[in-house]
Amino acid sequence: MGVNREPDTVRVEIGELALHGFRVDPERVSAAFERELTRLVREHGVPLAADGALSVDTLSGLASLPAGLSARRLGQELARAVHEGLSGHGEVTR
Question: Which of left, alpha, beta for 57 (phi over 0: left; psi -120 to 50: alpha)?
């Protein structure tokens, strides 16, 4: 009888976040992004990785974000968009 359990560790590596058209502090965006993505993964997991390890080269087809967001809000919204991609929404290139 198999036991379905959540992984003990989830590791998400983001090589690059490209911020075109935004006038914000990239370090503040990155910090807010990391906090929000960590929260989302803890609460909701990574559905695309439910069957084991997952390596994704590109997430695309995700929602556009308005250019006037604060660094904190931009980081949060980017994390939500990335988590949506890791949840099976958008286009995933492996």
Answer: alpha
In a domain, 39, yes or no: yes
Q: What is the pTM of this model?
A: 0.73
What is the chain's alpha carbon radius of gyration, rounded to the nearest angstrom? 14
What are the per-10-residue average pLDDT scores of the chain (94 residues)?
54 74 88 92 77 65 79 91 76 53
Q: Which domain holds residue 55?
A: 26-93
Start-end of H helices in 1-94 = 26-44, 71-86
Element (H or E) spanning 60, and its range? strand 58-60
Burial class (CB in 10 A: 0-12, 13-18, 19+), 56: middle
State the total domains in the chain: 1
Where are the alpha helices (H) located in 45-70, listed in sequence order? Answer: none
